[in-house]
Design brief:
Layout (H helix, E strand, L loop, with lengths): L6 H28 L4 H9 L22 H15 L1 H21 L2 H12 L5 E4 L15 E5 L2 E12 L6 E7 L9 E7 L5 E6 L10 E12 L3 E2 L5 H37 L1 E2 L2 E2 L4 H29 L5 H26 L10 H10 L7 H13 L2
Parallel strand pairs: 1-4
Antiparallel strand pairs: 2-3, 3-7, 4-5, 5-8, 6-7, 9-10
Helix pairs in contact: 1-3, 3-4, 3-6, 3-7, 4-5, 4-6, 6-7, 6-8, 6-9, 7-8, 8-9, 8-10
Bound molecules: flavin-adenine dinucleotide.
């Protein structure tokens, strides 16, 4: 067993770290303040090959897919990006771990050739449309319809909470092709934003990841060719869940990145802030908070890499991905809370980034399956239910 990153992943880590430090620090604060995503920074990140990690080289990807390192590479990069900017981090995670991976695994050659190269270069951004107003955790009860009409499908319905909707160029949409079967009546479609009948609706005002847009997407008589179906008709729910295994590893990486930022910033602060004539780092109460942060961070990262390794090896990883996401997200929440505590009043002020990290950490326990849903996934695997 080896706990070192292979050389190609170490180099990738260095590239992502340098990019995030140089290009993301300032925009991260501005995006949060102005609630507006910086698409230009995302395109720059893509120019370095960081948006095509889960895409084969034949479609412009970065080469990690061929070495069975795509998900591990995504973890390396997502940790670095989320350490500085969780709004850019979630955009990248959805783009790579949800959209690109699903299209690559389940799409036809024609679709892949037409779409994946645009995602590799970052010219296009991908989004994932599963949730609806009435179906969140119970995603299988979705009602958005896709009716067959000659050589086309016609989409009618609306999706809620869609990350990147206003600046995404292409959506993966789960819609109902049969009203008779609950989950077996769902199919998955690639829908280019340029098609008629798509409207971007309400823009959510959020607690955290405020730089990432989260919107309603409405489909009204939106006609798409049947060749935009991925997998078979009725396979959409299987595709959605399989894709979420990879997505959850991406969110674990997001949580690891946020937690690392909190730990590093709290450690630095504790070494300079003085009270009672001492650095606060000399108080055992503070030392123990830092020690626990460090332990949780390592444990979360190990769970994350195990899940990513399994997925890259093509092995089942639903339980391991759920464990990584659950542990990493709950750890990030606790670490961010303690970081605010170590900063005292300054932790409550927007002058310091821990205030933003505290708000950003919370979402990792909610999207791509809440913590309760992760516990259901894990216990079902244990009980064979
Ligand atoms: C910022 C943001 C971005 C998002 N981005 C996307 C996106 O890009 N694409 C997309 O499709 N969706 C997206 N979502 C939706 C997200 O995945 C859902 O919000 C999430 O799955 C929870 O669904 P819900 O909000 O309907 O909550 P509900 O399902 O209504 O859950 C409410 C509460 O009930 C609990 N609960 C529900 N069922 C059970 C159960 N069986 N046992 C125990 N407890 C249960 C939940 O854990 C939760 O605590 C996003 C959400 C947010 C907030």
């Amino acid at each position: 067993m080896n706990f070192e990153l292979p050389e190609e992943l170490s180099l990738l880590q260095k590239t992502a770290r340098e990019f995030a430090e140089a290009e993301l620090r300032k925009p991260a604060r501005v995006m949060d303040e102005e609630e507006e995503f910086n698409v230009g920074v995302f395109k720059k990140l893509a120019e370095l090959g960081l948006a095509g990690l889960t895409i084969p080289e034949a479609y412009g990807g970065s080469g990690f897919y061929e070495s069975n390192l795509a998900n591990q590479a995504a973890c390396v990069v997502l940790e670095e990006i989320n350490r500085i900017c969780a709004s850019t981090g979630v955009t990248l995670s959805v783009h790579m771990s949800l959209f690109s991976s699903a299209l690559n695994k389940w799409g036809s050659d024609e679709l892949k050739q037409r779409i994946l190269p645009h995602l590799s270069t970052g010219e296009w951004i991908g989004a994932y449309c599963l949730s609806e107003a009435g179906s969140g955790s119970d995603a299988g009860s979705l009602t958005c319809m896709a009716k067959k009409d000659g050589g086309d499908y016609v989409l009618d319905g609306s999706k809620l909470w869609i990350t990147s909707a206003p600046y995404a160029d292409v959506f993966l949409v789960m819609a109902r092709t049969s009203a008779e079967h609950k989950t077996r009546g769902i199919s998955a479609f690639i829908v280019e934003k340029s098609r008629k009948g798509i409207t971007i609706g309400k823009h959510e005002k959020k607690m955290g990841i405020r730089g990432s847009a989260t919107c309603e997407v409405l489909f009204e008589k939106c006609r798409i060719p049947a060749k935009n179906l991925i997998g078979e008709e009725g396979k959409g729910f299987t595709i959605a869940l399989d894709t979420l295994d990879g997505g959850r590893i991406g969110i674990a990486a997001q949580a690891v990145g946020i937690a690392r930022a909190c730990m590093e910033e709290a450690t630095d602060y504790a070494k300079v802030r003085e009270q009672f004539g001492k650095k606060i780092a000399e108080f055992q109460a503070v030392q123990w908070m830092l020690a626990d942060m460090s332990m949780r961070l390592d444990a979360a990262r190990l769970l994350m890499y195990r899940a990513a390794y399994l997925r890259d090896a093509g092995k089942p990883c639903a339980k391991e991905a759920a464990m990584a996401k659950l542990f990493a997200s709950e750890s990030a929440d606790k670490t961010a809370k303690d970081a605010v505590q170590i900063f005292g009043g300054n932790g409550y002020s927007k002058e310091y980034d821990v205030e933003r990290h505290f708000r950003d950490a919370r979402i990792t326990e909610i999207y791509e399956g809440t913590s309760e849903i992760q516990r259901i996934v894990i216990s079902r695997a244990l009980l064979g239910a």
